[in-house]
Amino acid sequence: MSKGKTDSAKSALKALGGYGEEILKAFLQANGRIEDVPENDALIQVLRKHRMIWRLDDADSYQIRNVVTRLLDHITESHRRHSAHEHIAGQWVYLQDRFDAYRIAITNGLVEDRRNLEDEIPERILELIEDIRQAATGFNQYVTSEFAYINNLELRIRENDRVLGRAHALNVLFDSFSITEMAELSIGEPFLEKLLQKHLPGALEKSRKDLGHALFQLRKLLSRLQEEQKMVKLLSTFESAYANNPGFMPDIEDIDFSRCPDSINAAAPFVIGGYADLLDPDGENILSDLANGLRKDKSEDWVPDSPRVPIDMSQEPDREVMQPDPIQEAIGQLIVMVTEEGMSVGAKHSRTVMDLDIDLPSWLQMISTDVSALPEELRQAITMEYQGVHDERYPDNMYVNDVILRPVHAS
Fold first, then answer.
1. FRET partner for 175 with CA separation of 20 to 30 A, picked from 59, 258, 298, 340?
2. Any idea where the domains of the chain sit in the sequence?
């Protein structure tokens, strides 16, 4: 490398170091934007000299270039993972602004601006997808380590609770992404439709599953740590009792059975029963393997061949007419009412009105399954709203007691 190019590279690195605090603040807190104000004149002048920032219009703020953003992504990975939900939310807000700018560029025929945005938007969406994946998988380290790097049990419980709060906030952020909104933002552009209606929803769904598994394991760990804390307090009580009376030796003869609790004084059967933990995402795989292992091949007894007898087919065989399932017909009527007549219907109320011979849980499950299995165009015209009561211990889980079907325009 020539001396001139070396000096230029050193000057660029020196500029990054000299204004490191301002650049990091713009990257972490303003999505890479640097406001064109007098106090930023020196920073803007140095970064423009090395072509590290850009803007489309004189009235816009400056934006850090992607080559610098990738470097900052790498060196701030730990910090961004710590506050992933804030970073992802900021990226999505910035992307929405870029979509608005792209729509304006198309409407006004701004060819150069449109070309620049077509280069920037896919890269930003792919960065968002990668950050979503990293944020969701970042909690696996806590599940694996079980906070073993913290010795004090009380501090370990507090850290577990804090990480659960962060994971819950990230889960809420994932739920805020609307498929309908992403479909509207794609505005019929093929490259946007592929990113917003296929890759981004796919990454969100995969990350939801990973995050849901981590949330369950963290809650289970928290429950175990709290039980251990109770046991430690109990043992500490016994330890202090022995410490205050060093010569004490427990003896069964010292027990006053007249004052002894019945649970200790009388023996009772100890019943052990197994059950499946339906809240555990891994339980389904375990139960599947168990069920497959219980299957037995029923070999039929060998029967010798009987002599063949001709069958008289002179008369036409009876025909059996299959009657339509009234439950499926009722679900079809509800879908027609929502999609064609624009009505909002409740599953619980409709079951009573139609006088259907089916229990409420099965009715709700069949409606949810049939609506989810509709063709894509018809499915997008219906919004399902689940109503119920959240579990006190696991607030992300809900006991559903009704499903409301609404047309999209009504929701």
1. 340
2. 9-75, 78-231, 326-407
Residue 110 and residue 130: Cα distance in Å, rounded? 30
For residue 279 the two structure tokens come to 């809240």
**What percent of the chain shows pLDDT beyond 70?**
82
State both tokens at 196: 């917003």
The overall average pLDDT reported for the chain is 79
pLDDT tens sequence across 164-197: 888 888 887 777 777 777 777 777 777 778 888 8
At position 362, the amino acid (one-letter code) is S
pTM for this entry:
0.41
Whether residue 82 has pLDDT greater than 50 = no
CB-based contacts of 180: which residues, under 8 Å, 6+ apart? 380, 408
